[in-house]
């Protein structure tokens, strides 16, 4: 049996080995060209990371793809190839909500690739500060969750910062209950407040006796569980591996389709990719019909609104800022005309950025 199996597999493995040799040669040729691109960019002081260009490369390859690899496989493979090429040009650092093992870290790697240098931060505020101060090139921050809604602190900081949104990622959130060695002796479960909320039905049904304690991040909860056998943590696979914990119960989120949207913040505006989104903040004068009048330019120029979120302005009485996402890039003629119309009608308008939409 083994001899026959090996006889049949050997020519196939030989073909794979030959193809691998061709692939490694081609990948290194590609890397050499990327280095030449880096030299040209350096001469013109152009940014190393161009998310719109990388989106276009992946979209073009997916159009060429005839299988059997799925489009998401093509995306994952080329994202790492481009990340490695970027690292040859220049080391890029991204700040994220730490410690190691958070979903923010996972989002960072899925967006930028494994070759990015991560800077874990103790708070969302510190992520913004690190990018503003130049300690990191980019920041990765959660902006909304499909179950719990907007991340209020991120919205408040986007209002205040001079940084721009340059990209987004929708990350599936898969919560696990992590312990040192099962639930025996465990008295409390720790997690970020949003994670506790996203798992409250499961916890009430399966672990009603456990005290629930909110901490700064799920990775911090995993660190606590690794140090204290009476603590269970809610976190992802990355945290379980990093902190050496056991997955006592997997996929405990109440919504099986739970996702968190992350945005990438930085100082460099992003050019059009052909599949873009523009985020902005507006406020209106306090008069009847003001919001209808404000949004009229979007309808007039055929610009679709994909998100509308309100936040108290914290000045005056019953005044709000409205966070809006629209389809298209600010340089697109229709979007530019709509934004000009908004600017004429709004009491306040801030464009947070135009960037490739998450596919």
TrEMBL record:
**A Gene Ontology term for the protein's cellular component:** cytoplasm
Domain Chorismate mutase positions: 3-93
Q: What is this protein called?
A: Bifunctional chorismate mutase/prephenate dehydratase
Question: What is the role of the protein in this entry?
Answer: Catalyzes the Claisen rearrangement of chorismate to prephenate and the decarboxylation/dehydration of prephenate to phenylpyruvate.
Residue ranges of the TM segments = none
Q: Where would you find this protein in the cell?
A: Cytoplasm
Query: What PANTHER family does the record tag this protein with?
Result: PREPHENATE DEHYDRATASE P PROTEIN, PREPHENATE DEHYDRATASE-RELATED
Species source reads Paraburkholderia sprentiae WSM5005
Specify the pathway. Metabolic intermediate biosynthesis; prephenate biosynthesis; prephenate from chorismate: step 1/1; Amino-acid biosynthesis; L-phenylalanine biosynthesis; phenylpyruvate from prephenate: step 1/1
Q: Which UniProt keywords apply?
A: Amino-acid biosynthesis, Aromatic amino acid biosynthesis, Cytoplasm, Isomerase, Lyase, Multifunctional enzyme, Phenylalanine biosynthesis
Ranges where the ACT domain occurs? 279-356
SUPFAM superfamilies given for it?
Answer: ACT-like (SSF55021), Chorismate mutase II (SSF48600), Periplasmic binding protein-like II (SSF53850)
Which parts of the sequence are marked as the site Essential for prephenate dehydratase activity? 260
